[in-house]
Structure formats: C-alpha cells, structure tokens
Specification:
InterPro entries: CBU_0592-like. By secondary structure, this protein is mostly helical. It is 65% helix and 0% strand. Helix 1 runs antiparallel to helix 2. The N and C termini lie far apart (61 Å).
C-alpha cells in the first residue's frame, strides 16, 4: 500500500507523543488533544494492517480507534459545568 511505512512511523510517533505528554502531566486523559493523538495513531496502524493483512493488529487498532473516538465524543458531548458540582439535593455553600 502506498505510504504504508511512512504512515506506520507517523502513527507510532503520535502514540508515543500522546503517551509521553500524559505521563509527564502535560495532558490528561480527558484532553481532546490526547484523544486525537490516540485516534490518529490507531487509524494509522489500522491502515498499515490492511496489506498484508494482519488480523491481530487490525482488530486491536480498530478497537483502539473506536475507543478514542468515543473518548472524544464524551469530551465534546459531555455536560459543561461552570459552577462546582454538588451532590443531588445539596445546596452549594
């Protein structure tokens, strides 16, 4: 497949950058950038698993991409809170 090696290298770089930034405390798991790095890395590795077909890598990275996409959806579709959260039925102090 065209550019398979380059896409695989780029995908690996995206994964490592995201993981490093998470572990160094620069990003959190709820960061859209972190989830985007994971999504793009997973899509890149999924592409490289197509030809020659590597079922283990393909399934792993396809699931990884779905999980990352779900993480992004949760971040963007989740409730926005301007005030601190309180327990139901408890008035803020």
């Amino acid at each position: 497949m065209a550019l398979s090696y380059e896409i695989g290298i780029a995908a690996g770089i995206l994964f490592v950058i995201g993981y490093a930034l998470l572990n160094f405390g620069v990003l959190s798991s709820t960061s859209p950038l972190y989830q985007t790095l994971n999504l793009l890395g997973a899509l890149g590795f999924t592409y490289t698993a197509i030809a020659p077909f590597n079922p283990g890598l393909f399934v792993t990275e396809a699931v990884w991409a779905v999980v990352a996409a779900y993480g992004l959806w949760k971040i963007w579709a989740g409730p926005r809170h301007d005030a601190p959260e309180t327990a139901p039925g408890v008035a803020p102090a």
